[in-house]
Amino acid sequence: MSSMAADLSSQEVVLSVRHLTKLFPVKAGLLKRTVANVHAVEDVSFDVHRGETFSIVGESGCGKSTTGKCVLRLIEPTSGEVSLDGQDFLALEGDALTQARRKMTLIFQDPYSSLNPRMTVADIIAEPIDIAGTYPTKEERDARVEEVMGAVGLDLAFKNRYPHEFSGGQRQRIGIARAIVLAPEVVICDEPVSALDVSVQAKVINLLQELQREMGLSYIFISHDLSVVKHISDTVMVMYLGHQMELASKDELYANPLHPYTKALLDVVPRIRTERIQDKRILEGDVPSPTNPPAGCCFHTRCPFATERCANEVPASHEAMPNHFCACHLYE
Ligand code: SF4
C-alpha cells in the first residue's frame, strides 16, 4: 500500500506499519480473569516517507496516541508489523533495540509534566545522549547540547535553569531539543501544541517545520485539531474507535473527503467548512465504548448512510481513488 500523494511517493519509506492491533484486556473477579478487551487499535496500516509529516487525526479516545506509542513500543502491540529503515522493529531486543530507538523519538503533549523538575535544562536535553553513550567526553556532550539549544531557539544562558522557570512554549522547545538531540529519523509528535496558547502554537509549529527541513525529519503528527493538521501535514489518516477510516494526501483529503466520518469531522471546523460548498453534516451521538465496539462498521451507530450491511460487515480499507484509501462500503 502506498499512502502518498504524487510528490512524496518517490521518497524512500522510512517507517512502515502493517495491521497494527492493540487490545487491552479488562480483568475482573478474584482470579482476575480477562472478561473483555478494549479494542484500542485495530488493523492499522500506513507508510511514512522520509521528510514527510504524516498526521493521525480523530476525536479523543480514537486510538491515535496508542498507535504512536505502539509504533515506538512504549506499549507493546498485540499484533502487526512495524518496520523502521527496513528493519523489523518489533523483533528487536537488547542492544539492537536501544540502537534502533535512537532513530525514533517522541515529543509529548504536555511540556509541564514531561520534564523532570529537578533536572537542569542542559541535563534534560543531554539525557538521551547519556543513556546512548554517544558524545562520551564532557566537551562533546556540552557542545551538542548547545548546538541543539541554538537550533530550537533557546538562549544558552538558560542552560543551568530548571523547567519551572520557563513558559509553556519554552518548555516545549526544551522537549523538542531533547527529542532531536540524537538526530533521529522519525519523531512522533503527540498533540505537541494542544496545551499551548494559540499565539505560541504557531511558533512551535514553525520550529517543527524548520527542523524538518534542516534535519530531514519525518513526523508522525498526532492531533485532534484539523486546522493545525491542515497546515502541517503531507498525508493524513483519520481514525475512529481504533480503526483507520480514511487515508490520503492532505490536499486530497481536505478537498475531497470520502468517508462519512471525515466529512462530519471537517464540517464542524468553521474555517474549513466555509472553504467547502457542502451541506453541513452534524455528528450526533457519542463515540461507542471501545470495550464493546459496534459490530460491522464501527461508525454505523452514528452514520447517516448506514445500511443493514454496515451493521454486520466490517468495511476493509480500500483504494477508492488513486492513493486515497477509505474504509466504507459506499466506496467499494
Ligand atoms: Fe457509514 Fe456504512 Fe460507510 Fe460505515 S460502511 S461509514 S456505516 S456507509
Kindly describe this structure.
- With 332 residues, the protein is an alpha/beta fold.
- It has one domain: P-loop containing nucleotide triphosphate hydrolases (Rossmann fold), CATH 3.40.50.
- It has eleven helices and twelve strands.
- The chain has helices spanning 64-72, 94-101, 121-132, 138-151, 168-180, 198-215, 226-232, 250-255, 260-267, 270-273, 308-312; strands at residues 13-28, 33-49, 53-57, 79-84, 87-88, 104-107, 186-190, 218-223, 235-240, 243-249, 318-321, 324-326.
- The strands form two sheets. Strands 6-7-8-3-9-10-12-11 form an eight-stranded mixed beta sheet, sandwiched between helices.
- The longest helix has 18 residues, at 198-215.
- The protein is globular, with a radius of gyration of 21 Å.
- The protein binds iron/sulfur cluster.
- The site of iron/sulfur cluster (SF4) has 12 residues, from loops.
- Iron/sulfur cluster binds at residues 260, 297, 299-300, 303, 305-306, 310, 315, 328-330.
